[in-house]
């Protein structure tokens, strides 16, 4: 403690004692409390530098995000999505269509033996067609119609379901039927037969899903959101494309 600080505190203590003799004891008590508060604020005789300014040690929650494996995976995905958006969206669609067909075969149709060629057709469509075309389409849509107002969201949902939906159906059924190697007539017939079922089935799921998509989901993560929702829808596509 420096001499000046010592004299100041001694003077304050004397004032508190003097107050107790010439005034009420309550005033003396308040003076003593103020003295104590002054000492605590000054660091309790720590050298007159305003107290301890050293950094506190990390608490139990500090740095938790750095050790959480899910957070690490998510950060890694976002980094790759920024560096290689087309590849990551293709892989995301590959995963979504693969899971959808596996669920359809294992738990809905209970296919035995498991049809690996069918899984290849669905998963490869996700990788080669759905992921890449979705990257292009939704990027263009967001660029031409920016914003998240009600009018913008309605316009995007309308374009998606009235224009893009049947185009997607044609790409899907023609691709899957083509890989079955049953001739061009089969491809055309399969697409004509199933297209209306796919389009009307989409209207039961995607208007609400896309309203959420265009209102709240960042453009870079639309394909991930779509494939998360589409796992169940992919079961439906897998069933009607193989019936």
TrEMBL record:
Keywords on record: Membrane, Transmembrane, Transmembrane helix
Biased composition (Gly residues): 41-51
Main location per the UniProt record: membrane
Residue stretches spanning the membrane: 116-138, 162-181
Region (Disordered): 38-68
Subcellular compartments: Membrane
InterPro entries on file: Mpv17_PMP22
Membrane topology qualifier: Multi-pass membrane protein
One cellular-component annotation, GO: cytoplasm
UniProt record similarity statement: Belongs to the peroxisomal membrane protein PXMP2/4 family.
PANTHER family in alphabetical order: PEROXISOMAL MEMBRANE PROTEIN 2, PXMP2 MPV17, PROTEIN MPV17
Protein name, as recorded: Peroxisomal membrane protein MPV17
Lineage: Eukaryota, Haptista, Haptophyta, Prymnesiophyceae, Coccolithales
């Amino acid at each position: 403690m420096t001499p000046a600080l010592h004299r100041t505190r001694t003077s304050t203590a004397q004032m508190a004692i003097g107050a107790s003799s010439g005034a009420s004891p309550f005033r003396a008590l308040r003076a003593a409390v103020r003295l104590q508060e002054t000492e605590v604020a000054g660091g309790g005789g720590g050298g007159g530098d305003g107290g301890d300014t050293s950094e506190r040690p990390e608490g139990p929650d500090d740095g938790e995000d750095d050790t959480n494996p899910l957070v690490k995976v998510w950060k890694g995905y976002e980094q790759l999505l920024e560096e290689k958006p087309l590849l990551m969206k293709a892989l995301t669609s590959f995963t979504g269509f693969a899971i959808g067909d596996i669920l359809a075969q294992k738990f809905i149709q209970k296919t035995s033996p498991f049809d690996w060629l069918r899984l290849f057709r669905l998963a490869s469509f996700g990788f080669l067609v759905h992921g890449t075309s979705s990257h292009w389409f939704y990027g263009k849509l967001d660029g031409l119609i920016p914003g998240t107002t009600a009018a913008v969201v309605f316009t995007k949902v309308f374009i998606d379901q009235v224009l893009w939906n049947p185009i997607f159906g044609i790409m899907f059924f023609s691709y899957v039927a083509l890989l079955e190697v049953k001739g061009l007539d089969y491809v055309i017939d399969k697409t004509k037969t199933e297209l209306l079922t796919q389009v009307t089935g989409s209207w039961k799921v995607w208007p609400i899903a896309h309203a959420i998509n265009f209102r709240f989901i960042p453009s870079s993560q639309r394909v991930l959101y779509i494939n998360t929702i589409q796992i169940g829808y992919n079961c439906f596509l897998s069933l009607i494309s193989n019936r």
